[in-house]
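S.,

Sequence below, as promised.
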Amino acid sequence: MTARRGRKLFTVMIIPHSERSVYSFSIHLTTVQVASFLLIAISLSLLIFANVYQDMKANMTELKELRLVNREQRQELEKLMSETNDLKESMQQLSELDRQIREIIKTSRDFSRVQLSTSYQPSTFATGPTPETVSDQSKYTTASILPGDDRGSSVSPDILARAAQLQSDLNAVQKDMSNRVVSFEDLRKELTENQLYQAAKPSVFPTNGVITSGFGFRPSPLRFGTEYHSGLDIAAAYGTPIIATGDGQVVFVGWRGGLGRAAIIDHGYGFSSLYGHTQKIIVNVGDRVKKGQTIGYVGSSGRSTGPHLHYEVWINGKPVNPRPYITQ
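The prediction came back faster than expected:
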């Protein structure tokens, strides 16, 4: 290092191995300092950039994994959304079927005695529609469960909250399905009871013949004046089969005064039926009989002017006109 006019210089000499001349040049101290600073700065920058690059590389790997997880979550949510919509559609169909069945039962002309349960109230879903308003499909949709971006290129920040919303919706459907099962069980019991009632109700014509005398006051066939006739007289040939007009139990077989040889069947539900003037009864007290089953044959026993069946229907022990009950 030499000083030239107060300046600090470094002289660099290059001596080749050959016989070529020596080459030398001078560098100012400031230049050396600047060059050293730049070299250190570049080295530090490269070190920092290397660390940043490693971090970015690790973040990119993590980001790819997160995107893959996000894509899988979206697929699961889409599957759940589809299943939820299918369940809701099924629930809407069940609700409509429930309503139609109840309407049919309520409007049945012979089912007025059976009171349908009305305690069932379907639960509401997240947005609150009931089976009576199932036509409002917008309230049942779950399309809003998935975020708008369907490319799977970024992680949805509220995907867990939306999944929880979908789970809540599914829980509501499951609860409503449980309630619907109870409702249909009630309907099954009501329909079973209705079937028993319809089978027991005396509703068929008791024999193959012609009605010759109706219910109520009539001219007496054996004496002058009028008399109260508590049933129907059905003229038929001797030996014509007599059938039970409803399911029930035989509670009387024997001679019944002017009605001659007779049978009485208790059908339950307050109904009873009587068959008089028979030639023969072929069932016994205590027998269970079915609607349409032969129980005896037409005759002319007791106070009778010819072969016919005297047929009565009782409700709670009182005779009523059988005609309105004969529907078959």
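The helical segments are 29-107, 159-200.

Coffee later?
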